[in-house]
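Entry:
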Amino acid sequence: MIVPWRDRRGKFLPLKAAVFVAVFVPACFYAYAWIVGAAQPRPITEAIWGTGLWAIRFFLISLAITPVARMLQWPGLLLVRRMVGLTGLAYLVAHLFFYTMDQKFVLTTVVTEILSRFYLTIGFVALLGFAALGVTSTNAMIKRMGRWWKRLHYATYGLIAMGVFHYFIQVKANVSEPVFVAGLYVWMMLWRALPMGWQRGVAVYPALAVVAAPATAGIEFAWYAVATNINPWRVLAVNESLNFGLRPAHCVFIAGVVVVGLVVGRRLAARFSGPMLARSA
């Protein structure tokens, strides 16, 4: 019997066990809030919002696993990528379930709303796409589909972008968190666009931080220019200082700097651990 915290040979893997427990934490938090009444006065709305938010977060984490594993030279991290991605799908299904509950389980109303509201249409199409990826994520399907499996799963990038856009429309006015999420997405897609050799280099990571931060500010500017009546130039000007606190572009830059520190630290640790092991031997 294959269980999530073991590999194909039945060996217990602490990392997979820890991640398996961790993915239930948000669901347990919202369930507890519902039970004790902390989600009042609209517990279903809170559940809809929370499950959708965590679906996006888990999909983004799954997207981050490959670059993190490569830049930290930690191939074992790839073992939890499928689990995290399927967790995102589970939260997305729960998101639709609670929305259906909010509509009193009247499926005709649900279908009508999905077809008539653009942001719901985008979200539902993304759900169907992720469901297709989830169904084809089994070892048997990977073997059966061969090289076509990887081609199909490239759709993950577009589906996550659709999810982030859905998030933007839902939030509407204060889009700081969606902008930050979009900035992280840009960073990860820029990394994937680099040649394999460049991905292994250290110098590319400061460059990614420098490029992703203004790109994030540009996304924020574009949103306010197209979707709101707020002056986008004033929003863009706020990014030029810290007088109004950290903006999403600043946070993306800080995240990029943290990545630089992790990469440099990992390389230094690898460089000095070799001679130390040789002396101890």
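The longest helix spans residues 248-280.
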